[in-house]
Amino acid sequence: MDEGRSSTRSRLIDVAERLFAERGIDAVSLRTVGAEAGQRNKSAAQYHFGSRQGLLDAIVAARSAPVDAHRTALLAQACEAADPPDLRSLVTLLVQPLAESIGTGGGSAYYLRFLAQAADEPSVRAAWRDTYATPTTVRAVHDGIRSRLADLPHDVLERRLEWSALVTVRLLAEHERRHHAGETAPGERARTVREVVEMQVALLRCPAV
Fold first, then answer.
1. What backbone torsions phi and psi does residue 151 show, to the nearest 5 degrees?
2. Cβ 49 vs Cβ 58: under 8 Å
């Protein structure tokens, strides 16, 4: 891909991510993305991504790659420790890389809010279920959680894993908003990670009813 086309794609991804995060997935057309990105060709976004789903996939691919690379490195460190990671450590592996992408995710200031909007779209969630939404490392962490909560019925645990992901994204999206509005204090991200992790551990561990 030549440099000019790559630059245009990156610009369209950045603009689309912001618009989807601010307005919602269904409220933003490909034409709007192109116009907001300063493209004279009103069909620029369709030319580069084919469809809105293609643009959504491109955003996730661009933003999720560094997040999952960080998670992979953290998982490798955890597996090299003398003791295998416990439930709290595994849940931290799900939360921490996302939280640490805030403000450092390739220049993105909107990825968590984008994900929160995407989580409200059943068709989007279905399209990502077997691809970007559950990358290899996330699946490995989920398998570890399942092995540590084997006493829970399968359907209960799977439902809780889905709830955990949805709650995590929404809470971190709010932290992202506050961070970029200058409303967070030093050390608040680390505290947010600890609190979200403790909430998710409690959610996952509570007895089946």
1. -75, -15
2. yes
Q: What is the DSSP letter of 103?
A: T
Output phi, psi for 104, to 5 deg: -130, 5
CB-count burial class (<10 Å; 0-12, 13-18, 19+) for 56: buried
Calpha distance 185→178 (Å, rounded): 10
Extents of the domains making up the chain? 63-205
The angle at the Cα of 102, spanning 28 to 205, to the nearest 5 degrees, equals 100
Q: Please write the tens of the pLDDT for every residue from 143-159.
A: 999 999 999 999 999 99
pTM to 2 decimal places: 0.89
Q: Contact, 49 vs 114, CB < 8 A?
A: no
Mean pLDDT along residues 42-71: 90
